[in-house]
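User: Please predict the structure of the protein below. I'd like the answer in structure-token form so I can feed it into my own downstream comparison script.

Assistant: Understood. Taking the following sequence of 344 residues as input:
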Amino acid sequence: MKEKLLIRLFVESDAKAVQAIIHRGLREINRKDYPAELIEEYCACFTLEKIKSQADSAHMYVAVFENKIVGTGTIAPYWKRKNESILLTIYVLPEMVGQGIGTAIINALEQDEFFLRANRIEIPSSTTAVKFYQKMGYVFKNGSIPDDEGLIRMEKFRNVKLLSEMTLEELWQLFPIVLSEHDPEWKNFYKSEADFLQKHFGKNAARIRHVGSTSVKGLLAKPTVDILLEVADNADLATVRRLSVECGYTTMAETTVPEYRLDLCKGYTPLGFAEKVFHLHIRHLGDWDEPYFCEYLNQNPEKAKEYADLKMKLQTQFKYDRDAYTEAKGEFIRKCVKAARNIK
């Protein structure tokens, strides 16, 4: 098979064969991944015109065996970025699956200039294809749960040090303290992520709340959405940890004394911050300080302004020392929480 298989660039006369492979792949290989009506919508999208247009704006390849096109795959810049690329519409004729054609297509795409110049390559995968892409070195981008399109985003990094390989100092350099003017979109980021967590944690999530500076109206903040997720006292913590990982979170710290705390993050990459960054704080149901602090600042704009001024001062001092920055805010936060609890 390998000796007789040819991987070459798409030409316009390949369009009908490529369309047939994509349609058959969706209907036969992906039939368990998506509802039937969604598959037909996807098939309707892959017109001959769209395939030709995609080939014009990206690099589309075909796999040819015994003068017959048996597979296809495409690589393109990711949102026009030079250091990021995306692999698309990788399909093999159903009767030819398992014969190394998919691997040959990936290998060809990984020799393309769009791959070689990229530090990050993304693949929107179906559930069926996940194990194959894992064998090819791709990992989950935001967890193993399909998104609203039924796709599982996977990625591979090249020529960059992975976060797990970095020292604390290197991490602080990559992720400095950055303060932004308040963005109303943060509220929408929270709502979308909270709905996602509630859906996948189910009854394990007793209560979810937006905390941190992004929850305070008009407050200068790090563009990181903090979420407090509370679980019942009898919740199975192993299940809670597993669900967190499936939702794309990485553990930062876990303690059990004096109470259970699991702090996780999402949106930190070897290339820096992602568009959306989240900190997830998992606790047992309780009377926690964070909601008091946020509500106090929302009700007392002068205190919110004082907090913003403090953060700007500390950002100058501790831009590359997150622990020191957090510790230096502690006294102000404790005073506000005490005042808020007294009001209650």
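That's the full token string. The radius of gyration is 24 Å.
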